[in-house]
# Entry
Amino acid sequence: MTWDQGLHKATTVLAGEQGTRELTYLEAIRAALRYEMQRDQRVLVMGEDIGVYGGAFKVTQGLIEEFGEDRVIDTPMTELAMIYAAIGMSFEGFLPVVEMQFADFISTGFDAIVQFAATNYFRWRQPVPITIRAPGGGGLRAGPFHSQSNEAWFVHTPGLKVVAPATPADAYGLLLSAIRDPNPVIYYETKYLYRSLKGMVPEGEALTPIGQAAVRRSGEELSIIAYGAMVQEALSAANELERAGHSIEVLDLRTLKPLDEAAILATARKTGKVLIVHEANRTCGVGAEVAALIAEQAFEYLDGPITRLAAPDTPVPYSPPLEDAYRPNAAKILAAARELLAY
Amino acid sequence: MNEIDDELLQQAHYWMRLTRALDDRGTFLHKQSKIVGGYFSQIGHEALSVAAALSLGPKDIIAPMHRDLGAYLVRGLTPRRILAQWLGRETGVTRGRDANLHGMGDLSLGIIGFISHLPASTGVITGVAHGIKLKGEPRVAMCFFGDGSASQGLAHEAMNWASVFKLPMVIICENNQYAYSTPLSRQMAIEHIAQRAAGYNMPGVIVDGNDFAAVYHATKEAVERARSGGGPTFIECKTMRMRGHAIHDNMAYVPKELLAEWEARDPIARIEAELRARGLLDDAKLAALLARIEAELDEAQAFAEASPYPDPATLTDGVYA
# Structure
């Protein structure tokens, strides 16, 4: 079994949402690409092995047959030239969606993103409407260079937007919004959820607005703020705590830049206890910014220390016992939440 | 230069003289502390930047760099907007957001604004050319970079991409012998940067970058090849950076003999010799042209100096489209 088939023994099915079809997280991404490409001739996708082969994870499978090789472009192995090319194509009126085979490889395209794309509108008022898909996150025993959660690099950069969907519906809706946004958007999709998470996904114009978090579960005693793969883990922990009589709120950030400050402050003020969870390394991670925001603007509502649960400051290890120790999960969230509840 | 007609030669002369005069004006304004930060002279590059830009049509796209003042002018960026940019005014191309020639993009003029990471232009122009090809339009994209940029991976990645997709693209490499203080011999182990073109299976052309006609013919041919579906061309223009990397740099590291050698090949002296030989220029005509250019720049400078600085209250505006 390889990582593109997933290591998951079971698939979580989200129920109760209004929708017309049940899709995996991965299928929702593909559905969004197809929908946008059918809707708008300017949209094209490019990346390594994404056309004829259908992509390392098969996200783009079938697109080259439907849209042809001009709009589904198999590129040489160069993330840097690829992202620069996307910028240039956008100047010709295209809306390119670039696939990084793994989020880890986005570092080779770093200059194009943070130096050129991020600054261009500020400098000479020419928008750069490109979308970069970055399959990130661990839990798949893929080692240090196929497991990274490096979104904080871009959250620190003015001019970029960064999104991180946690559900199939948002995987679909945020990709639609990213493609239509006039700014460069980094779209962090979670490999762990590709085939392990299914949910109802509306058809058509079901955009998830960039910059809006979602309360996944309402509660009174403690807020867990998470994004990406950690949202499902947080919900599992919250359900467990509910059985023990606790009332837990779970806020899914959905967009990491710009942060939905109002939603973060609202949940902090409501419960007074905040546990922030992410898969990325702890130091200067997104959680640090969320914690600082709450400390600055909701201090008087707090009834316990703002707490972060994140990966330690190490590279992502390969061996299962090490990766399990590295990566936050429902059990670790449960332990951290219990400690904070008891404060 | 016999194949260049009189009218084109006179046009080129005007642009080259305007370029040098504007450049001298920039140096002067920097000495007066009216231009702050860095100032990058392009003296020595007039022939190649003007010739390359004149070889293009109005709908083509260029990505020039900081030694290509002539290309900006030919494309229609006015001395008013350029001086206002240098003086950090709201009426400058980047409204005070970017410095000196950086970021002076305006797609309505077919100009892409560069960043300090100069090879970036090769990557961006690759995408522009790719977009042009997808649209099937008879247009061409041209980028400029230098001997220093040639050592960066992106330049290779972009040229490789351009050739794989056979894009309508012209790559102008301005080999001006030095990248800041680093001489060519420390930059590469080959004699001609254009030798690398063979590695991308594209034509590699070497021209005297201080000879307007030579550059014009080479770029014109490359532009026509690109326009007719023949793919990209790499043109190495041999030239010399006649000033320091930026105004603070006295370039003590450049041998005086080398500078003297290139001084004798000054691009403006050469085009003026040709004009005089054709009976198109004499001392009186040259004096009149220079006076007209100075008046044009006086007016542009007055406009720039009368323009407001950007309002600090607008600092955080326009980070996002």
The first strand of chain B starts at residue 61 and ends at 63. Chain B has one domain: 6-308. Chain B touches chain A through 42 residues (CB under 8 Å).
